[in-house]
Each structure stands twice: as structure tokens, then as C-alpha cells.
Write a structure and sequence with these properties.
heterodimer, A: 262 residues, alpha/beta, Rossmann fold, 2 domains, 6-stranded mixed sheet, 4-stranded antiparallel sheet, 10 helices, 26% strand, globular, disordered C terminus, B: 296 residues, mainly alpha, ABC transporter involved in vitamin B12 uptake, BtuC, 11 helices, 2 strands, 72% helix, 3% strand
């Protein structure tokens, strides 16, 4: 058993066999680690995450080359349902709650997604409510009518109901007030430290992401151009210009920092 | 002097016949909600169910056994359709799936013909069509029976969707298919369940319509009656299918009786489409349908 839980190697992916979204992305997530995937709009963060949770096909996308290894197994040909049962559980960009279901039904849907037994569901519900007490109050509200923050908590809670080993979050801060974002990242960090849950988080909000993550990978134009410890990256001045759309400078190449792999 | 009693009688007759339209429309809605496919084969399934049942009864099978056997056949058909047609075409554009169901409807009709022949069968489900008198208004016993059956079916489905795991999965898939996939729900299973449910609806509708019109190949054309119902109620709302069916049924009968004479009669067959078209201009997503809102 190696230290690495997920490794993505030279990933390339297209949509409709024609639009290239990701051309060369490599990084890895170690057990118990929080990895942030940073980059501007269109850098390939979502595509990379969807490739990892094998949701690309549902968006008419396809992995054209590269490998995605989860826990020693190539998962490129697995179905999303198999992957959730193996422990790779996505939290989608834009939350995607089941709007007409109640908050609790949303959570239960997550448990059904891994064929949980009734007794397990009850226990897991309590665990999610302990993490997000706000959800307990709103348990019988229609999810579509709850606030953005509550929907994000519902989406995360729903993923937790599948008892993940690697939680894959796409822009959890999107459209939320800073204080709410802070609360959500705290909860994620708590899961990480208390239960050793590994997380892969794509974020545009680099400040928050770098503060809460152990290491980070920066994507630009579909390539992973920089990787390193989050604490180190936070100290570097050129990062912001780099991943917010500025072009990569020579000194920003991964050679001088720890490379993403090995 | 205006005859209100007659109006009431026409209205009730119309509403009750509308129930039969709703029943066909619900079959469409179930599948449309969960997979975004307008299942053109719903009419063929209805015919297939009625024909299978009536042929079994004619060959001396008892009513209950024939019903159970037909139910089993419809469930098998639902699962087969999911395996052979939907699964290979997953993630294809809706028009591709629609064309597939169009083809499917001819295959099912052809199979029915091959299996059971082409002659018209009478179907007696043991309910007489003698009207009875409620305070001077005549109500058809058969229509009332049909309405009761349809009502219990809807109630049964409602309970199923609210309190079972499969029901919850169904609602989740209908809400957000991508999210359902992401949380690990097995969409093929949900689709198979939905096609099975649509098969059961087809069976019930087939028996009621078959008893009314005789089991013959034109039975598959009742799908065309369901279209204005769907336009009116919205393609993705079960409540809409019920209300739409009632409205269409009532409109048809009222139009025939009160407006028909102005045109020399015979407008029952197309009055519903006029109403549906007019509504389409005002509310393109129907009375109860979800409006497609896209965030930019």
C-alpha cells in the first residue's frame, strides 16, 4: 500500500472529440492530504475533476490519453456509480442539489448511491447534522428554497453520506459570502484532521484554498504548470498573476519547486 | 332557457373521458421526466398490453392469470427496452432517442401482430356501460370505474415515489440527472424501473381503452390524444397530465355539444388541438411544466 491515494498522469481530455479542454495535467493526492487545484476560468480544473470522477462522458467529454490511478487501480473505464462505491465522491460545481427534494432526502439520496443499509443511513445522517447543525434545522425544507450556503452544505453532506475516501470538490466557494466560505472550508478541514479524509478541491478563490490545503497544483491552459506545498506557494508573489490569467513566466516552471509527481 | 342539467351531464362525461387521456399521458410523463425522452412507443406498448391480455383470455386463461402474465410481459419489455435501446444511446441528443422510440413503436406493433394476429378483439372487463341516474344527471358506470382505477393507480404511484428508495431515486433523477449520476445512483436501474412503471400504466390504459373501443391496431393512436394533454399540462408534470387530461376531456365534449353545431358538428376530434395550440402560444411550457431557466 503506497502513500499515494490518487495520481493523475499526463491527462488529456476533449469534449465532443474536438474541443481540447485539458492537454497535460499531472498531480497526485496522498492519503489524508488536502490538495487544491488552482487556475483561472477555463484552465481545465472542472474537466480534470470530472475526469477523476468519470463524469466526463455525461458531458460528452472523453479522456484521450493519460492515466488516473485511484488506490492502485486505473479508474478510467469505471462508471460513476462504481467509483462512488469505491470511495471517490464528487461535489459538483454549482452544488447541483436535488431542488424539489427536501434537504434530508438529498442526503438520503447520497446514501442510496452507495447502497447503504437503513441503520447506517440513520447514523450517517446524525454525523452530517453534527458537522452542519444548520442542516438539521432545515432537514424538511425543500432544498431548492434554501440559501446558497445551505445548498453547498447539503451537497457536501450528500457526498459524505456515501462514506468517501476521496472527496472531489469543484468550486465550493462559488457565489458564497466570505464568512460562509470560511465555515465550509473549516468543516472540510475538520473532516480531514478528525477522520483523515483526503480532499481534492478546485478553487478560483486561491487565498482560501491555499490556507486550508496541504499542497496545490496550478493549471494554465489545460496544463499543470506549477505544484508545491501550499505554505510555500502562499509566500510567492508571482502566483496570483500566473493563475489569474497572466502568462507563465520562465521562473514559474515547476522545475524549481517540488514537481507534482514522484 | 339554458339547460344546466344537460351542461353538467356533458361536463361530467367529458371529465370522465378525460381521465382516460390522463392515463395515457402519465405514461409519457414518467419517462420524459426521468430521461428527457418523448416516448413515442407508449401507444404501441398500450396496444401490446391490451392485445396480450385479450389473446390470453380468449385462449381460456382466467382473468387474474392473464393480468399477471401481461404484467410480467410488460415488465420484461421495460427492462429489455432499457438494455437494448436506452443504454447504448445514453448521452445522445434527445432527437436521437425520440427517433429510437419511433422505431421501437413499430417494432412493438409488429411483434404484437406477429404474436397475436391482426383481427379486432372485443374486451369485456366485467363492467357494464349502463348509465345510472344521480339527481337527473346520467353518469356512465364504465367511465366512473375507469376514473376510480386511474385514481388508485395515481395514488399508488404517489405513495411509491414518496416512500420507497426507488421512488426517491426516481425523483432525484427527474430533478437533476447529472447530480444523480454524481452521487452514484445507478441510472440504468432507475430507467428500467421507470419503463416498467410506464408499462404498467400502458397495461391499465390499454385494458380501459380496449374495453371501450375494442382491441385493435388503431388503439396505438390514442398517443395522439395524449399530445394535447401533454402540451396543456406540461411534459414533465404528473399533476399536469391529470389536470390536462380532465381539461381536454371536458373541452372536447363541451365544444362538440355547444360549439360543434356552428360548424356542422364533428369538431370533437380536433377541438383539443386548437386549445393546445392556443395555449402553446401563451405558455410554451404548459400549465404545470417546468420553465427552462438557464443561468448565464
Amino acid at each position: 500500500m503506497t502513500d499515494v491515494l490518487l495520481s493523475v498522469e499526463a491527462l488529456a481530455a476533449t469534449y465532443n472529440h474536438s474541443i481540447r479542454a485539458v492537454s497535460d495535467v499531472s498531480f497526485s493526492v496522498r492519503r489524508g492530504e488536502i490538495v487544491a487545484l488552482l487556475g483561472a476560468n477555463g484552465a481545465g480544473k472542472s474537466t480534470t475533476l470530472q475526469a477523476v470522477s468519470t463524469l466526463l462522458a455525461a458531458q460528452r467529454g472523453q479522456v484521450t490519453s493519460g492515466r488516473i490511478i485511484f488506490d492502485g487501480r486505473d479508474i478510467r473505464s469505471a462508471t460513476a456509480a462504481e467509483l462512488v462505491r469505491a470511495g471517490v465522491v464528487p461535489v459538483l460545481e454549482g452544488r447541483h442539489c436535488f431542488a424539489s427534494l427536501t434537504v434530508e432526502e438529498n442526503l438520503i439520496a447520497g446514501a442510496i448511491g452507495r447502497d447503504a443499509r437503513r441503520s447506517e443511513i440513520a447514523a450517517d445522517l446524525e454525523r452530517v447534522y453534527a458537522l452542519f447543525p444548520q442542516l438539521k434545522e432545515r432537514r424538511s425544507s425543500t432544498a431548492g428554497l434554501t440559501s446558497g450556503g445551505e445548498q453547498q452544505m447539503t451537497a457536501i453532506g450528500r457526498a459524505l453520506m456515501s462514506r468517501p475516501r476521496l472527496l472531489v470538490l469543484d468550486e465550493p466557494s462559488m457565489g458564497l459570502a466570505p464568512l460562509v466560505v470560511e465555515g465550509i472550508f473549516r468543516a472540510l478541514k475538520q473532516l480531514n484532521t478528525e477522520q483523515g479524509l483526503s480532499l481534492l478541491v478546485a478553487e478560483q478563490n486561491s487565498t482560501v484554498a491555499l490556507r486550508f490545503s496541504d499542497s496545490a497544483v496550478v493549471l494554465e491552459n489545460g496544463r499543470s504548470v506549477l505544484a508545491g506545498r501550499s505554505a510555500e506557494l502562499r509566500r510567492r508573489e508571482d502566483i496570483k498573476t500566473l493563475y489569474l490569467g497572466g502568462s507563465a513566466q520562465k521562473d514559474a516552471r515547476p522545475t524549481e519547486l517540488k514537481p507534482a509527481l514522484v | 332557457m339554458f339547460d344546466y342539467q344537460f351542461l353538467l351531464e356533458v361536463l361530467i362525461g367529458g371529465l370522465l373521458s378525460g381521465v382516460m387521456y390522463s392515463l395515457v399521458a402519465i405514461g409519457f410523463v414518467l419517462i420524459y421526466k426521468t430521461s428527457g425522452v418523448l416516448n413515442f412507443a407508449q401507444g404501441a406498448m398500450l396496444l401490446f398490453a391490451a392485445l396480450t391480455f385479450v389473446s390470453l383470455v380468449e385462449r381460456g386463461t382466467s382473468f387474474v392469470v392473464a393480468l399477471a402474465a401481461t404484467l410480467a410481459v410488460m415488465i420484461a419489455l421495460g427492462i429489455a427496452v432499457e438494455r437494448a435501446v436506452l443504454r447504448p444511446l445514453v448521452n445522445q441528443p434527445p432527437i436521437t432517442l425520440f427517433m429510437a422510440t419511433l422505431g421501437l413503436s413499430y417494432i412493438i406493433e409488429g411483434a404484437a401482430q406477429l404474436l397475436w394476429g391482426t383481427q379486432v378483439h372485443g374486451l369485456d372487463i366485467g363492467v357494464s356501460d349502463i348509465p345510472f341516474d344521480v339527481g337527473g344527471v346520467f353518469i356512465s358506470r364504465f367511465d366512473l370505474f375507469a376514473a376510480a382505477v386511474a385514481g388508485s393507480l395515481v395514488a399508488l404511484f404517489t405513495l411509491f415515489f414518496r416512500y420507497t428508495r426507488t421512488g426517491l431515486s426516481f425523483r432525484a433523477v427527474a430533478d437533476d440527472q447529472f447530480a444523480a449520476l454524481a452521487v452514484g445512483l445507478r441510472l440504468p436501474r432507475v430507467w428500467a424501473a421507470v419503463w416498467t412503471a410506464a408499462g404498467i400504466v400502458a397495461l391499465v390504459a390499454g385494458l380501459l381503452w380496449g374495453a371501450r373501443l375494442g382491441v385493435q391496431f388503431s388503439l396505438s393512436l390514442v398517443v395522439l390524444k395524449a399530445l394535447p394533454v401533454l402540451v396543456l399540462g406540461g411534459f414533465d408534470s404528473i399533476a399536469g397530465a391529470i389536470v390536462g387530461g380532465l381539461l381536454i376531456g371536458a373541452t372536447e365534449k363541451l365544444a362538440e355539444v355547444y360549439v360543434g353545431p356552428l360548424f356542422g358538428g364533428g369538431i370533437e376530434a380536433w377541438a383539443a388541438y386548437v386549445v393546445a395550440l392556443a395555449l402553446l402560444l401563451v405558455r410554451p411550457s404548459g400549465l404545470f411544466g417546468q420553465k427552462l431557466v438557464e443561468r448565464v
